[in-house]
Amino acid sequence: MEIVVFIEVRDGVAKKSSLEAASEARRRADQHGWKVAALLVGSPLEEAAAKVASYKPDRILLADDALFASYSSQSYSAALAEAVRQENAHTVFVSATTMGKEVAARTAAKFQTSVLADVVSIERDGNTWKTRRPVYSGKAYADVQSKEGAPVFITLRPNVFSAGAPDPKAKPEASKLSVPIQPQDVKERVVETHKAVSETVELTEAEIVVSGGRGLKGPENFHLVGDLAKALGAAMGASRAVVDAGWIDHQFQVGQTGKVVSPVLYIACGISGAINISPVCLLRNTSLQSTKIRTLRFLKSRTTASSAMRYRFFPC
Ligand SMILES: Cc1cc2nc3c(=O)[nH]c(=O)nc-3n(C[C@H](O)[C@H](O)[C@H](O)COP(=O)(O)OP(=O)(O)OC[C@H]3O[C@@H](n4cnc5c(N)ncnc54)[C@H](O)[C@@H]3O)c2cc1C
C-alpha cells in the first residue's frame, strides 16, 4: 500500500471530510497505480467501515478496541503510526479537522517529519508533493513542497476535495490492526464530553454558512440568521463581536479565533468583514481534479523561505 488515509469516526459514524480524503487518495492512487489503505480507529466501527468501503480503498484497517472508544491523541497516533509502518506508506492523508490536525502532527513527529497542513490543492511532482494552503486568514496562499523521503503527512482542508460517488458494491479486504500500545501508556483520558447543541449543520463541514454580526443590533434578532440558515440547509455562524457580547455561544464563532470554514457560499449579515473573520470561499471545478479558490481580499505578492519547506506567497 502506498497511501494510508486516517478516517475520523465520531459516534460510530465516519466524518464527511474523511470520506473526501479517502476519495482524493483513491483518485491519486488510480493516477499513479498505487494502493490505498483506510485506517479507522474507535469502537464500535462496523457502520463507519461499511460506509468507508463504498469509497473504494483497497484495504480497510480496523483499530477497534476498548482503548480507542474515547479519543486520545496518544493512542490514535500510535494506531496511525502502526498503519503507516505496516503498509509501508509513502503518503498519509488526514482531514484537517481538530482531531485530524492533532493526530497527523503527533504521528509525523514519530517519523521525524513535518506535516503539509491544511492544503487546498495537491500535485505530485516526481517523488514530492506540491501543495497549496491558505495563510494570513485566507488573504494569501503559500505553495509548500514536501522533501523527498517517506512518509509525507498531508492534512486536507474539509469541503475542498470532493467526495467521489460511493459504490455500495465495493468490498475491500478488511483486517484488524494490532497496535502496540497498552492502557497504561496512555497518559490522557476523556473524563466527560459536553456536546454542542446545534439545530443547524456543523460549521466546519458546511457548504453554505449564514453568519450574523453586530449589525443585527441585538440577540433578540439573531433568530433571523438561524431561520435563514435552516431554510437553506446551511450552518449558522457568528462574528466574535457578538460572541464576546454574549449574544450567542462561542461554538458558532467563525474566523481566526473561531472555526475555520470553507463553504461554497458565505452569507454575512451585519458583519463588517474584518481580516479575522473572512472565510475561504471555494469555487469547485467540475473535473474534481482541481479546485479554484477565491478569497474576499487581496494581498501583495512576496516571497520567503524556511529551512524545512519552500513557500511562495501570491495574490489571490
Ligand atoms: C487577534 C484577533 C482575533 C480575532 N478573531 C476573530 C474571529 O475569529 N472572528 C471574528 O468574527 N472576529 C475576530 N476578531 C474581531 C474582528 O477583528 C472584528 O472586530 C469583528 O469580526 C467585528 O464583528 P462584526 O463584523 O460583527 O462587528 P462590526 O465590525 O461592528 O460590524 C458590524 C457591521 O454591521 C453593519 N450594520 C450596522 N447596521 C446594520 C443594519 N441595520 N443592517 C445591516 N448591516 C448593518 C455595519 O455597517 C458593520 O459593517 C479578532 C480580532 C483580533 C484582534
Which architecture of the largest domain would the CATH scheme give at its second level? 3-Layer(aba) Sandwich
Largest sheet: 7 strands, parallel
Helical stretch count? Answer: 6
CATH superfamily of the largest domain: HUPs
The poorly predicted ranges are: 283-316
Helix content: 10-25%
Q: Can you tell me the CATH class of the largest domain?
A: Alpha Beta
Order of helices and strands: EEEHEHEHEHEEEEEEEHEHEEEEE
Largest sheet, order of strands side by side?
7-11-6-1-4-5-12
Q: Strand pairing plus helix content: what structural class?
A: alpha/beta
Total of domains:
2
- What is the average per-residue confidence, as pLDDT, rounded to a whole number? 86
Q: Report the count of strand segments.
A: 19
* CATH topology title of the largest domain: Rossmann fold
Bound molecules: flavin-adenine dinucleotide
Strand residue content: 25-35%
Overall 3D form: globular
Query: Multimeric state of these chains?
Result: single chain
Span between termini: 36 Å
Describe the model.
The protein has 2 domains: 2-185, Rossmann fold, CATH 3.40.50; 203-307, Rossmann fold (3-Layer(aba) Sandwich). The strands form 5 sheets. Strands 7-11-6-1-4-5-12 form a 7-stranded parallel β-sheet, sandwiched between helices. Strands 8-9-10-19-18 form a 5-stranded antiparallel β-sheet, with no helix packed on it. The protein has a 3-stranded parallel β-sheet with strand order 14-13-15. Strand 9 and strand 10 (140-145) form a beta hairpin. The radius of gyration is 20 Å and the shape is globular. The protein is 22% helix and 29% strand. It is an alpha/beta fold and 316 residues long. The chain has helices spanning 16-32, 46-53, 73-87, 98-110, 223-232, 240-244, and strands at residues 3-7, 9-10, 13-14, 36-42, 59-64, 91-95, 115-119, 121-125, 128-135, 140-145, 152-156, 173-176, 208-212, 235-238, 265-269, 281-284, 291-294, 302-305, 310-314. The model is unreliable at 283-316 (pLDDT under 50). The chain starts with a strand and ends with a strand. Flavin-adenine dinucleotide (FAD) is lined by residues 213-215, 239-242, 253-258, 270-272, 274, 276-277.
